């Protein structure tokens, strides 16, 4: 589930149609904090909350051992897009290949499970 989610998340983030609106929100958020807050709550926070709920269920099922599922969800999502999204955001690189996405997400999932999987 984490691998599939991670790949879908990165593919969504790295779409050209998603970068421009994000840049726009970031540029006006200082002057209009409510725009930034609304964007964050409808996007990143929503994803963190949904993944956190799944992680809560995995903790309850004794599959994972996580102290704070909100933090763990944010860590998982951040590490999946690591090295791929920010270059796009700053026009410093192109979209990642499917192979690169699979490679980075694979590392992120293995790292996550090494930290949180019950032994």
TrEMBL record:
InterPro entries: TetR_C_Proteobacteria
Every Transcriptional regulator TetR C-terminal Proteobacteria type domain range: 2-117
Top-level taxon of origin: Bacteria
One Pfam short name: TetR_C_7
Protein's UniProt name: Transcriptional regulator TetR C-terminal Proteobacteria type domain-containing protein
Source organism per UniProt: Hyphomicrobium album
Lineage: Bacteria, Pseudomonadati, Pseudomonadota, Alphaproteobacteria, Hyphomicrobiales
């Amino acid at each position: 589930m984490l691998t599939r989610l991670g790949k879908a998340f990165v593919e969504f983030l790295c779409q050209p149609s998603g970068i421009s609106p994000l840049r726009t929100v970031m540029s006006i958020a200082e002057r209009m904090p409510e725009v930034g807050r609304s964007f964050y709550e409808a996007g990143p926070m929503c994803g963190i909350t949904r993944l956190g709920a799944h992680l809560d269920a995995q903790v309850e099922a004794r599959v994972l051992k996580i102290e704070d599922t909100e933090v763990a969800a944010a860590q998982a999502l951040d590490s999946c897009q690591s090295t791929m999204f920010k270059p796009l955001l700053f026009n410093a690189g192109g979209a990642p290949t499917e192979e690169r996405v699979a490679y980075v997400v694979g590392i992120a999932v293995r790292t996550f499970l090494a930290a949180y999987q019950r032994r």
